[in-house]
Write a structure and sequence with these properties.
about 400 residues; Rossmann fold; 2 domains; about 50% helix
Amino acid sequence: MNPNVKKRILFVDDEQNFLEGMRRMLRAQDGVWDMDFIANAYAAFDQICKTGYDAIVSDIKMPCMDGFELLGKIRNTEWTKDIPVLILTGSNENHLKQRALDLGATDLLNKPVNREDLIARLRSMLRLKSYQDEITAQNALLDRKVRERTLELEETRLDIIWRLAKMAEPRDYDTGNHIVRVGYYCWAIAGALGLEQEYIEALFLTSPLHDIGKIGIPDDILLKPGKLSPEEFEVMKKHCAIGAEMLRHDCNCKDAFLEERRLHRYKTTGNGSNPLLKMASTIALSHHERWDGTGYPSGLAGDKIPMESRIVALSDVYDALCSVRPYKPAFTEEESLTIIRDEVGTHFDPAVYDAFEKSIDKLRSIRIRFSDQTYRHPDNDQPIANKDLQIS
């Protein structure tokens, strides 16, 4: 706190003569204190709410609003609750003194007021207020640092998620913003389904990892410019299990590593379940399941397929249809929507499709905002023109 800043003190009493006497009594303190004198408790509280006082001196017995009510309003208002309050009472009013203390009075002083006693009490209250202000300032600083650190960790986590998701993209060409678009598509569709915000945010963060398992698929299959053979497609299917295994949370292994590095503050608590990794693993494993049970790898059907995987399945297919791939050119939006519509009830959950249809304007805006440059095959520098559709 700046010691050169004058402290502000408010005196409240319905007797104007008493206030004038206080003003004369404390005139020598004008150089160190800014003092206001108000004869009405209502006006005093309005002034307290407008001005950051360091201390308040109030009588108890006042008309309209007495000192007890004023004290209660001060303590029950966030802006004023920590201001120290000195209550003036008669020497024989012990029951009033106890009530004042119960309401949060900082100190008590008998009338008639002794100048030296009043100054000593005020100085003590002002020191208390300075200590409180310092603690408040330190707490605010710590809170700000915690928020900044939390934001840094959150940004780091998001950066790691996006970088990890990009690992799934083919290694010798750039599929652009596919994972970004899928994340935003999922956000829009989940919102149209009326799902909880926490779930939507988790889906947005984890859906870009749906194809992380493709890093385990050989390039000659992953980048093949044409339809895969049945044998090759069986290999491609393995990316679901590979991705799920990569994202499955092994807390024992992690805690052993942290124990070795003495990083105790990062150790897992409870069962070690990380909800984001759990959702990401679920999506990676089951985003190629189909509503009619003919998908892979587990042949799940209907509601047995996790909701997040149903949403990602439709988002992924929509983006794949509208985008160039090594095995196909980009279809028009009309062609893509026709293909998807024909698959409702077989490939796609009808409820998810309804939300998709309601969100189509948002999805179109997302696709335009995060569009890719035209892909050309590196061997012939010509756009791929294979019409065989095989979304893997």
